[in-house]
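Researcher: Let's continue the batch. This sequence belongs to CoA transferase subunit A, and it's 272 residues. Same format as the previous ones, please.
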Amino acid sequence: MARILALDEAIAELVADGDVIALEGFTHLIPVAAGHEIIRQRKRDLVLCRMTPDIVYDQLIGAGCARKLVFSWGGNPGVGSLHRFRDAVQHSWPVPLEIEEHSHAGMANRYAAGASGLPFAILRGYTGTDLPAHTDSIKTVTCPFTGEELAAVPALNPDVGIVHAQQADRQGNVQLWGITGVQKETVLAAKRSLVTVEEVVDELTPRPGAVVLPTWAVTAVAEVPGGAHPSYAQGYSERDNDYYRRWDAISRDRAEFEAWLDREGLAERSAR
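Model: Same format as before. Here are the structure tokens for CoA transferase subunit A:
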């Protein structure tokens, strides 16, 4: 049964230096508050996994939390590049960053394989790209029935999977709705999981098309209203487009980024 914890308690207990962690959410329900708490607690040498790393991963990388990024696309959506990510790759600031790049389909299939207890996933993908030449975790297999050559990628089983949702009940059952990505697969594939939620309610009201994560699949729940900001939580908040635009200027300059850490109360416990 999932335990209901404060966010700082949950991060302290579940995330350790050197862990493979995944903070997932697509456009919507991105667990930004959890990412900021990881920065506050000075977690280091993390392998960050995410299908679409955006500004929360830019912040984690800039704060020195990551040694590797496993991903399929990276950018400030609708605005441009992730400049802290770029600085880490090109100039090793604040620490060197290793990258492992996949396609969206490859990452999604890796999570699905991990959630299913399979050692790898097979897909029609990567054809016409040079990713297999640069990413050791992309292989090929021959179908024993048709002879077709297919791409194979290893299952992704993070040490910790972190997602944001709208609601959980007091028993730790979680419900999320709207645009969902691989949140369900992330939680089921991970060894430990944390779901931050907009609110804890006495009873979940079923919603058409909602994803329900049962309490037995979740390690911990933390009530964090606004925990997805600046992304949005359908039914609770709207996307803060100005924040994404402001981030472009903040992230371009190391001094401005460090000033942002100060303003957000993150600098005193981050790597400088």
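Researcher: Any comment?
Model: The chain has a mean pLDDT of 96.
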